[in-house]
Design a protein that fits this description.
- This protein is mainly alpha-helical and 725 residues long.
- It is 58% helix and 0% strand.
- It is built from 33 helices and no strands.
Length: 725
């Protein structure tokens, strides 16, 4: 052991050299890096690492490490770093701590003479936001997080801060300290000294007083700084690399697999609440009003690249918006990767602080600007949301937990009911923004969304007339001649639906004939005088089939685990008829669809987009109610097809009042395609509505085709030739 004596002498000599500098130096302006302090610290580190490698028995502490612990060198260095003398000393201390903890394999953090200065150093960093030592601070936290990952039981001690020292009376048995640690520590000290006495001198608990599992009074005070607050402070750094590294460290911390550590994070630290509060602070830092179009330009922003794309046009609040969406994406990623206990707690904190306390008052505000901005921001958040726990909280926030059918006259009692009313708002902008919100919500993998909005009202198939025979033909179902829109005089004018489909057979061996009839029912709704796509080299019905196929496959895979029935529930002919209500959501969509000829083009696009999203769902009730033209509706009921029929009836009357209707309609279509300048025309809203109507009917026909058979994605056939449709 002769070399070890030389190592100890060298180690002590280097430490005395550092202390001698403070005794002899009179120049307070010389930077630390220009003194011999960095070199001596490097030599001390090298000696500790070399000594450990030479140890015969693994886990034993050598004389140099004993000296470091006994003489509280780390605590002294921490004090020197806090004093920042000489200038730059704090940086040297952070580096030394990081390297010692990383390179020395002996479990140092179990010693109070190490734990205490580590906590002090965390507080130094936590009280100096934007300091010059951010790079060293984040490296120091990286080492601590790495150690916690290796030994999750350390988490409670690292987070506990100074309370672990102040509350020695609360010491009790803990599993955090391995049973054989005491034996190892007995060997850590030479036999000519009393190990128990040395342990007290070093600040290490006595052999029979292990570190506490959870000292009393573990709640972090508002001014307390620990690893969590240090990491959160570094996450706010203006230096991109520092912030990213701190976020990665925090992610590592919350993903610790130990149930005890996860429980500690949620019950005894302010971790989840602090993360959610920072999200709210970023939200509040954005301008009161943001244009929904500007918000959409930052779609898909990532927490790893939170800065706004430089190639996008600048607008006021762009950087603040990018910072908020980036942190929201980070919260979502944290919840995805975290231990289940932490994930649930963080999701609830985000829901409470951001959704309920911050967003909800703005969504229900009387100010149209407030409603518009908050709705667009919520849509952007839903688009970025992927974690299961946060999605559950978002759905509960928007739609509540009650999935009972709604009554026609029921007053809105949930946020979702108010948002549905916003879909029919006096402001077209708010209606469009809210419809986009629901369209985004419908694409989320959560059954409660479609069940709450649509399915709960379709249960029991009350929309089907009881005791009626299955319809034999299109005419039997619709009775166009009896519709008030279809007067005898009008039918004699020569303007008729382009083609009445032949009767649909009640049954079919392979079903292809039946699906062709359904497809034709939609394709033939718009009269020939109101069709313009054939005059332009434009993608037609086959393009819609291709797009619908991909969207339907995606939707089917999303709902595959929900256990939906494959076929319609049989009707009981003896069951008395009960009033049917389609629900407020479909009611608003149908009302909007009925006004398609009088609404702005952008609003019509959004209404039809949401309806086609709904039609894609492979539930037999949704398929029947939205895509089956042949159902016999109960008295007073309407379906999507019946709404379209009445719109067509209205259109065929209004066509007569528009001079040169076909030419103007073709001109408007060319304007919408950007082929000619967009000059204003008379009846422009009507003409644009007709273009949307034609395209929507083709889209519904394509969806009906790819969904055959209605109950499953068994799509092993190709689209029929154009001449068949």
């Amino acid at each position: 052991r002769e070399p070890s004596i030389d190592l100890l002498q060298a180690f002590v000599e280097h430490w005395k050299g550092i202390t001698q500098y403070y005794i002899e130096s009179t120049d307070e302006n010389t930077p630390a890096k220009k003194t011999d302090i960095p070199w001596r610290l490097k030599q001390m580190l090298d000696i500790l690492v070399y000594e450990e490698r030479q140890q015969a028995a693994a886990g034993e502490a050598g004389p140099c490490l004993e000296y470091l612990l006994q003489h509280k060198i780390l605590e002294t260095l921490c004090t020197l770093g806090k004093a920042e003398y000489p200038p730059g000393m704090r940086q040297q201390v952070f580096q030394f701590f990081s390297k010692v903890l990383a390179q020395v394999q002996h479990p140092l953090l179990h010693y109070l003479s190490v734990h205490r200065p580590v906590q002090k150093l965390l507080r130094i960093g936590g009280t100096a936001p934007g300091s010059l030592t951010e790079k060293e601070e984040v490296q120091f936290t990286s080492v601590l997080c790495s150690k916690i990952q290796q030994d999750p039981e350390l988490l409670a001690y690292i987070l506990e801060g100074k309370k672990i020292i102040d509350k020695k009376k609360a010491f009790r048995e803990s599993t955090a300290l391995p049973k054989d640690t005491a034996g190892h520590r007995d060997k850590d000290y030479p036999h000519n000294r009393d190990p128990q006495l040395d342990r007290e001198c070093c600040g290490v608990p006595a052999l029979n007083s292990p570190l506490p599992a959870k000292p009393e009074g573990t709640e972090n005070g508002p001014g307390e700084s620990n690893l969590i607050t240090s990491l959160l402070g570094l996450c706010k750094s203006k230096k991109g690399r520092v912030a990213l590294k701190a976020q990665e460290n925090l992610l590592l911390l919350v993903s610790v697999a130990s149930p005890a550590a996860a429980a500690y994070l949620t019950q005894n630290s302010s971790c989840c609440v602090a993360i959610a509060k920072h999200l709210c602070q970023l939200y509040q830092s954005m301008p009161t009003f943001l244009d929904p179009g500007d918000i959409a330009t930052l779609e898909g922003i990532s927490w790893r690249l939170p800065s706004a794309p430089s190639d996008e046009a600048s607008f006021p609040g762009k950087e603040a918006l990018a910072a908020f969406l980036g942190w929201f994406d980070y919260c979502d990623h944290l919840i995805t990767e975290a231990h289940t206990v932490v994930a649930d707690a963080l999701a609830k904190a985000v829901a409470e602080k951001l959704f309920v306390e911050t967003l909800q008052p703005q969504l229900l505000h009387v100010s149209e600007q407030s409603i518009l901005t908050s709705t667009a921001l919520l849509t952007a958040m839903l688009r970025q949301l992927h974690s299961t726990a946060l999605l559950q909280e978002a759905v509960a926030f928007l739609l509540g937990t009650d999935q009972q059918p709604t009554a026609p006259q029921s007053s809105p009692c949930t946020l979702g009911a108010h948002l549905i009313m916003h879909c029919d708002h006096l402001s077209d902008e708010i209606s469009i923004a809210t419809l986009r919100l629901f369209e985004e919500l419908l694409q989320k993998p959560h059954e409660q969304v479609i069940r709450s909005l649509v399915l709960c009202n379709l249960e029991g198939r009350l929309y089907v007339a009881r005791g009626s025979q299955e319809p034999e033909s299109y005419e039997d179902t619709l009775d166009l001649e009896e519709d008030p829109y279809f007067t005898d005089g009008f039918l004699d004018s020569g303007l008729q639906p382009s083609t009445k489909p032949p009767p649909a057979p009640a049954t079919s061996s392979d079903g292809k004939t039946a699906v062709t009839e359904i497809v034709n029912s939609f394709l033939c709704l718009v009269p020939e005088e109101a069709k313009t796509s054939a005059f332009l080299e434009e993608n037609g019905y086959d393009t819609y089939v291709h797009d619908a196929y991909g969207l339907f496959q995606e939707c089917s895979s999303r709902v595959a685990s929900w256990g939906w029935p494959l076929s319609l529930a049989p009707l009981d002919p003896h069951e008395p008829e009960r009033p049917f209500f389609e629900g407020h959501f479909l009611q608003v969509l149908f009302d909007r669809m009925a006004r398609i000829l009088d609404q702005p083009y952008s609003l019509n696009l959004q209404v039809t987009s949401v309806l086609s999203r709904l039609a894609l769902f492979p539930h037999p009730h949704i398929h029947e109610y939205l895509l089956d033209p042949y159902i016999s509706l109960a008295p007073g009921c309407r379906s999507l097809f019946s709404v379209l029929v009445r719109v067509i009836g209205d259109l065929m009357q209004r066509i007569q009042r528009v001079p040169q209707f076909p030419g103007k309609l073709l001109m408007v279509r060319k304007q919408l395609m950007g082929q000619i300048p967009g000059e204003h025309l008379d009846h422009q809203t009507l003409l644009q509505g007709v273009v949307v109507l034609e395209e929507f009917c083709k889209e519904l026909a394509a969806i009906a085709f790819v969904k055959f058979p209605p109950h499953g994605p068994h799509l092993n056939f190709s689209p029929p030739p154009e001449e068949q449709v």
